[in-house]
Model the fold of this input.
Amino acid sequence: MQWLERIGWWVGTALFCLFGIPWFLWGDSTVVLGLPLWIWWHIGWLLLASVLFWLFAQRYWGLGVEPNWQPDGDRP
Done:
């Protein structure tokens, strides 16, 4: 199961990087609540990044780095 989790995190990271820059909003002048839509995209993206990093740090910090790492294995 560890290899599946590793692949999942790699795919998630790739998608996260791909959509980190809102290419599809370039040239869009839509304003929502007084701010451009691309600013709202970045606000939401940073919130999502915070949640994903918290999840990764809590559960999978050693994944792919430590040779015999297990989720929630030898942590205090």
User: Anything to note?
Assistant: The chain has two helices and two strands.
